[in-house]
Design goal:
435 residues, alpha/beta
């Protein structure tokens, strides 16, 4: 569970960093002419042209091969990535397999998320998440990785921080007395690793200190009071901030309680909460296959990440809105107080084993569906309200007409009774005179 969360956070950070970076297509090329001549005795008159790509590279393909030096950063989203040249900046790579060849020289950091990572060149620092990391080259400084298997077959210049199941060192052969330091696995600094069980580390493989932390014990320790308080504070701050933003920008965007909650509306919200992430993901994949619009994939994935981030808070806000509506609470101060209480109750429910995971999943689905419902079905709701108003106006007009007709009928009936009374009086007076 911890590894899965760290993977998601790292992927979101990678996508946000790539989105915030200036989007520049590195199409500018500089031709550098290197002459192999001497001032006294010219050795050769042949000239070699070296092509260097200036600026950042954004590559979204199935297979990516970097054979030309890049004077900038690399942002790669692919299936297989192979680097065999110099990179002047950082390399952000999300792929299935990453091969950093012997001719690769990455002057800065490598941020990699892949199942298999093979390093045979030279890098400054490496930050990786994947199934296996194999180091046959040279890491100038630190290695920070989350993986199942770490294979160290060469030298690491400083420290190693790893969360893994096994660490394998290539040991120094006894036959070669003057073997190179890069021909066997060594760590020049400290080794800090998290694992279920303690791993056997060869002698003289780590120059510094070795620190082992049990992963099971670490998971228990993370459930301390301070972490509980931090978790509660994070969800409270998120819910309050999103509620205030929604109240300031558009209260109807987050509060879907203006109309009564029906079974049809609930099913629509749940359906949108399930299908909207699927549709956004499919659109991102389709756009990725189109070279012109491939850069929009990062934007779609960031939108999806934001929806997941605010979904739980939106669900809590909607539940609080329904409670306040039933209790006839209209003042925002009291709504804020009930929001705090509702958030604390929801957080306590998520701590229940097994049931807490289901509650959190339903909250995510409901939150995404609620935001999507407010955005996509806004016009229909307004039309329904206008139709209701028109129906009310028609009913009022009918009642007014009925009232007027009733009044006229009563008036005519009153006049008829008066006329009958007058005629009766006249007839009586005539009878009296005749008598």
């Amino acid at each position: 569970m911890l590894k899965h969360r760290i993977k998601i956070i790292s992927l979101i950070a990678l996508l946000i960093i790539s989105l915030l970076a200036p989007i520049v297509n590195a199409e500018n090329e500089v031709n550098v002419e290197a002459t192999t001549t001497d001032q006294v005795n010219p050795i050769s008159e042949n000239q070699q042209t070296l092509t260097i790509k200036e600026g950042d590279e954004y590559l979204f393909q199935d297979t990516v091969n970097i054979d030309t030096p890049v004077d900038g950063n690399l942002f790669i989203f692919a299936n297989t990535v192979t680097i065999n040249s110099q990179v002047g900046g950082d390399a952000f790579i999300f792929a299935n397999t990453i091969n950093i060849g012997e001719n690769a020289y990455i002057l800065s950091n490598v941020f990699a998320c892949a199942n298999t990572i093979n390093l045979k060149g030279v890098v400054y620092n490496i930050y990786s998440i994947g199934d296996s990391l194999t180091i046959d080259g040279f890491v100038y400084r630190d290695v920070r990785s989350i993986c199942n298997t770490l294979n160290i077959n060469s030298m690491i210049g400083r420290n190693v921080f790893v969360d893994c199941s096994s660490i394998n060192f290539k040991e120094k052969s006894n036959t070669e007395e003057n073997s190179s330091i890069t021909s066997y696995g060594t760590i020049q600094g400290d080794l800090n690793y998290f694992s279920d069980e303690e791993i056997q580390i060869p002698e003289n493989a780590v120059s510094g200190e070795t620190h082992f932390t049990s992963l099971a014990k670490n998971i228990v320790n993370t459930k301390s009071i301070s972490n509980y308080i931090y978790s509660l504070g994070a969800i409270l701050v998120s819910a309050i901030v999103i509620w205030l933003i929604g109240l300031w920008i558009s209260p109807k965007l987050l509060h879907n309680t203006s109309t009564p909650m029906t079974i049809r509306k609930a099913l629509q919200i749940i359906g949108l909460g399930i299908f909207v992430p699927i549709v956004i993901t499919l659109l991102a994949v389709i756009i990725l296959l189109i070279p012109i619009t491939s850069q929009l994939t990062i934007l779609l994935l960031c939108i999806l990440a934001i929806l997941f981030f605010i979904s739980t808070s939106v669900s809590v806000i909607n539940i609080n809105g329904m409670i306040c509506k039933k209790l006839n609470i209209t003042q925002n101060v009291y709504k804020l107080g009930f929001l705090i209480v509702t958030t604390i109750i929801f957080w306590l429910l998520t701590l229940i084993p097994y049931a807490g995971f289901i509650i959190s999943l339903l909250a995510i689905i409901w939150g995404i569906g609620s935001v999507s419902y407010s955005i996509l079905i806004k016009e229909n709701s307004s039309q329904n309200s206008s139709n209701v108003e028109k129906k009310c106006e028609k009913i009022e007009c009918k009642t007014e007409k009925e009232n007027t007709s009733n009044n006229t009928d009563t008036k005519t009936s009153n006049k008829a009774t008066k006329d009958q009374k007058n005629t009766n009086k006249v007839n009586k007076n005539q009878d009296k005179k005749s008598k």
